[in-house]
Amino acid sequence: MAEIIRNGKAYDSADVKVKINGIPIEVKSLTYGNEQDHQLNHTLGINATSWSWGKNTPSCSMTLMMGDVTPLETAAPDGDIKKIKPYTMTVEFVNDFNAIVVDVIVAKFKSDGREVTGDMGLEKQYELFALSVKLNVFP
CA-CA distance, 58 to 130, in Å (whole number)? Predict the structure, then answer.
């Protein structure tokens, strides 16, 4: 079962499907969203007189089991997942109203490595370099 956190709302469902470039992948957890810059505008007084907004910054991280990242490393140039070109990740799940939600993320790995602990089921959280996060792309 995957855990999806989408703009702060958690969805736990066995129906979550994640695909990278159309290929299904097992994901332990996936967090993604957009953040937009905001600022207060001041004139000569001490209080702000207006506000404005700025650039959007997408973000994404995902946790993979080590057994699921190894095939990606094998297919990557020189075995380095950081060298994999930006890919399209689709996330499909059912929301609270039983409607299918499809989100599309364009991202790439910006780190590699291992996290070895005494726990069963080795996993690692990867911070991704997100180029785009689009929510509810399929009506």
Answer: 6
